[in-house]
Amino acid sequence: MYIIFLGAPGAGKGTQASDVAQELNLIHIASGDLFRQALEQGTELGIKAESYMERGVLVPDQITIGMVLERISAPDCEGGAILDGFPRNLEQAEALDKALAQQSKAIDKVVYIEVSEEELLKRLSGRWICRQCQTPYHITNSPPKVWGKCDKCGGELYQRPDDTVENIRKRLEVYSVETAPLIDYYARVDKLLEIDGEGGVDEVGGRIIAALHGERL
Ligand code: AMP
Predict the structure, then answer these.
(1) Domain region containing 71
(2) Would you tell me how many other CB atoms lie within 10 Å of the CB of residue 90?
(3) Is any ligand 1 atom within 6 A of the Cβ of residue 32?
(4) Is 170 an active-site residue?
(5) Closest Cα partner for 18 from 145, 116, 144, 134?
(6) CA distance 167 to 175
(7) 3-state secondary structure of 14
(8) Closest to 110 measured CA to CA, from 86, 94, 144
(9) Which residue from 35, 50, 68 has its CB within 8 A of the most atoms of ligand 1, so it is best to mutate?
(10) Cβ-contact 24, 213 below 8 angstroms
C-alpha cells in the first residue's frame, strides 16, 4: 500500500504520517528528513541540497527524484510506504507513477490535509523538532513534557533553520505554485481524500484513519 500525504508546510503531514505509518505498519518516508539527515552527515547529496533548503525553494528534481525512488525501492518498503513531502510538483508525481508502474504497483490514496494560511504561519513559527527522531512539537499546541527534550526518545529539541518568517513565506509561495496543482492531479484519478487539518493532533488523526478505513485499504 502506498499513501501520499499532501499539504502545505505546517499542515501536520509529518506528525500525521508518522502516526498513520505506525497504525498501518508502513514505513514513513519524509523527503525533508532524508535531506536533513544527508546534511547532518555531510554527504554530497546533503551539500547539494543545502543552498536550496536555506532559501525555502525546491531541491532540483534530478537530485530529489533519485533519492526518494532509491529509498522506496529498499527491501523494507516492499509492503508499501507513506510518502510525506514527496511528490512536490507534477514532474515528481509522474516520475513516481512511472517507477511504481514498472513494479506493477501504484499509489493507493493521497491524504490531502487542508489548513488555513493563518494557522500554518502560527504552527510553523512555534515549531520545535527532535534532533534524533524528528518528532515535532509546538510551544503552545503540543509542548513536550520537559522543555527542550523529546517525550519519545529524550533527544534535544531545536527550531529548524528554515522556519524563519521570511523562509516560511517563501515555502508557502512555492507550495501554492508548484505543489498545489497535485491536488487536481490526484483528484482526477479519484485518489484524493480531503481532510480538515484544523484542530488537535488526535482529532485530525481520527479523521484520517476514518477516511482511510472508509476506503477499505
Ligand atoms: P520539509 O521538511 O518537507 O518542509 O522540506 C524541507 C526542504 O527540503 C524544502 O523546503 C525543500 O527545500 C526540500 N525538499 C523536501 N522535499 C522536497 C521535494 N519533494 N522536492 C524538492 N525539495 C524538497
Answers:
(1) 2-116+174-214
(2) 14
(3) yes
(4) no
(5) 134
(6) 12
(7) helix
(8) 86
(9) 35
(10) no
pLDDT digits (tens, 9 = 90+) for 92-146: 999 999 999 999 999 999 999 999 999 999 999 899 999 999 999 999 888 999 9
Max alpha carbon distance in the chain (Å)? 48
> What cell numbers appear for 130 in the block?
527532535
Residue 129 and residue 149 in contact, taking contact as beta carbons nearer than 8 Å: no
Quick check: is 57 in a domain? yes
Domain membership flag for residue 36: yes
Number of structural domains (the chain) is: 1
Q: What CATH number is attached to the domain comprising 8?
A: 3.40.50.300
Q: Is the CB of 185 under 6 A from ligand 1?
A: no
Tell me, yes or no, whether 45 lies in a domain.
Answer: yes
Q: Per-residue pLDDT for 216 more than 90?
A: no
Cα 185 to ligand 1 centre (Å) = 20
Amino acid letter for position 204: V
Q: Is residue 185 part of a domain?
A: yes
Q: Which residue has the cell 514505513?
A: 27
**C-alpha 184 – ligand 1 centre gap (Å):** 20
